[in-house]
Amino acid sequence: MAEDVTHPENIKVLITDRIAREGVTFLREQLPEAQVDERPGLSPEQLKAIIGEYSALVVRSETQVTDEVLSAGTRLKIVGRAGVGVDNIDTNSATRHGIIVVNSPTGNIMAAAEHTIAMLMALARHVPAADASMKANKWEKSRFLGIEVRNKTLGVIGLGKVGMAVARRAQGLEMNIIAFDPFVSPEQARKSNVTLMSLEEVLRQADFVTLHTSLTSGPSGTRGLIGEAELRMMKPGSRLINCARGGLIDEEALLRALDEKHLAGAALDVFSQEPIRDNALLQRLVAHEQIIATPHLGASTEEAQVGVATDVAEQIVSVLRGGFPRAAVNAPLILPETLKVLQPYMTLIEKMGRLYTQLQPEPLRKIELTYSGEIASYDLRPLQAALVKGLLESVSEAHVNMINAQVLAKEWGIEIVEQKSTTPAEFANQVTLRVVSDGRAGGESHPENFVNVLSGTVMHDEPRIVQVGPYWTEFAPEGPILFCRNIDQPGMIGIVGTVLGKASVNIRHMDVGPSVRRARAYDAKRPTDSALMVILVDNPIPEWALDEISQAGNIFGVKMVNL
Ligand SMILES: NC(=O)c1ccc[n+]([C@@H]2O[C@H](COP(=O)([O-])OP(=O)(O)OC[C@H]3O[C@@H](n4cnc5c(N)ncnc54)[C@H](O)[C@@H]3O)[C@@H](O)[C@H]2O)c1
Ligand SMILES: O=C(O)[C@H](O)COP(=O)(O)O
């Protein structure tokens, strides 16, 4: 049997970049049986060689979590980024592998904004060069003539969380703020006294330009956002600050713009290669007299590091205990209140999926999911994921979860169509699953293929199946269950009961449901109508007993399922 990687004693957490002690302590305290290993500085090969042992990986921006690493992480459930940017993690690959990626979207905003302001002031007043000169025992008062930032224009590119925090702080320094961000509305910006403009206008008007977008690739991505042409657009003598991501700037073009004195200076916290090691271009860049460089220190404050490490540690504990993360990068964000309501429906719908696959092991094409009642007003994405999990887990090796459910459903060629109505159907809240199979095993007209509809509800927080194919029923979808249909006439229950007694199988619950048609228009004169027997048992029924029931006469479609 496969090892349960969520069992506390089997959990291993690997931390490959340095994170605050508080985060490590939290993991050790909350997962006392788990093994928490801190292994900073692993090479990509070393990481690949050991990742297969771990259920969780914690990184900052240094560890490259590539497709190769994720493919080797066969037990990996979650990757936690103790920080914001996830450009060092192949999130598409994580999604395909069903691995949750979480980050701390707000833990280091202030740290990054304050570092940007520090860079702005250092650039304006040559603080690092003056300090170096003093340390070289010089007193070069006239060499370090600076400029004031008051009444200067700051151009913010990317008016998101950090960009806005920088804008507010720069307003305190009496700067005028202009910004470029195609996803922010002018009203939103105006409320914060920021004037939105095109990228070109910002570059032409600003005395200082500061970058705060994330790094994205592709045709409309931000990689190389500030290239040769954009640097030329910048006002002569202006200054550039980058505390966002290295790949945003063409570093070679920046070096030229500085050498030609088109720009007066640049302050860089981030680089296209980190650490820069023996990258000749980056070495020349950081050695340049007009450059101020820091080794990706934007988030490096005590406060931010404690914040991001505990933020991520909490999410890892929650996920490893079967809960949900607060800030998943590759999963829908579901509020805890919503999740509380949806949880029993997730169990219900997963069981409906499992029940369907076991009763009707036939390739699926299309599923129509109908939600009726108040439940229809919620964000129901987790339910769809639960359905795919239920449908596929008994027939495939795939580890299905909320992260990869849609990708896997597509790979299996299953189309899921949802219908929602807040008007209750037969029950206050009801989920109905209608299946269009590809009919290879005889299709819907085949006498054994009676299950094209399953319906369920939740009673007192417990899932209940209320319709199976054309029959009404009511049972808790749990454990071994015998399904059989019989001609609706006296003596049928007795036959089944006797065989089960002979086989020493204890019946936990039994339900005999008439067909929906018959229940709707009850007609005692139609004894040839069929009924569905659903018998919940305590232990599996031996083959010989199932055969005996099948051969008893007037009983057909005998099937054992395990939910
Ligand atoms: N140096 C550090 O240590 C450090 C610390 C924290 C954050 N960061 C980096 O700072 C950046 C901003 O972080 P955030 O939390 O504010 O992110 P955010 O998502 O809140 O903001 C990014 C903003 O960029 C905008 N944007 C997207 N594409 C754009 C484009 N082509 N042109 C202009 N704007 C565009 C978005 O609309 C958004 O408003 C990220 O790259 C993050 O990784 C660095
Ligand atoms: O994206 C981030 O959170 C920052 O760039 C900080 O990165 P770091 O955790 O490697 O310092």
Key terms for this structure?
serine biosynthesis; Rossmann fold; 7-stranded parallel beta sheet; alpha/beta; 563 residues; binds 3-phosphoglyceric acid; 60s Ribosomal Protein L30, Chain: A; 19 helices; binds nicotinamide-adenine-dinucleotide; EC 1.1.1.95
Short description:
Residues 481-563 form the ACT domain. By secondary structure, the protein is of the alpha/beta class.
Chart the SSEs and their pairings:
Elements: E1 12-15, H1 21-30, E2 35-38, H2 44-50, E3 56-59, H3 67-72, E4 78-81, H4 91-96, E5 100-102, H5 109-125, H6 127-135, E6 153-157, H7 161-172, E7 176-180, H8 186-191, E8 195-196, H9 199-205, E9 208-211, H10 228-233, E10 238-242, H11 251-259, E11 263-268, H12 280-287, E12 291-293, H13 302-320, H14 336-359, E13 364-372, H15 381-393, H16 405-411, E14 415-421, E15 430-437, E16 453-459, E17 462-468, E18 471-475, E19 480-487, H17 492-502, E20 507-514, H18 516-520, E21 530-537, H19 543-550, E22 555-562
Parallel strand pairs: 1-2, 1-3, 3-4, 4-5, 6-7, 6-9, 7-8, 9-10, 10-11, 11-12, 13-14
Antiparallel strand pairs: 13-15, 15-16, 16-17, 17-18, 19-21, 19-22, 20-21
The structure holds nicotinamide-adenine-dinucleotide and 3-phosphoglyceric acid (3PG).
The site of 3-phosphoglyceric acid has 10 residues, from loops.
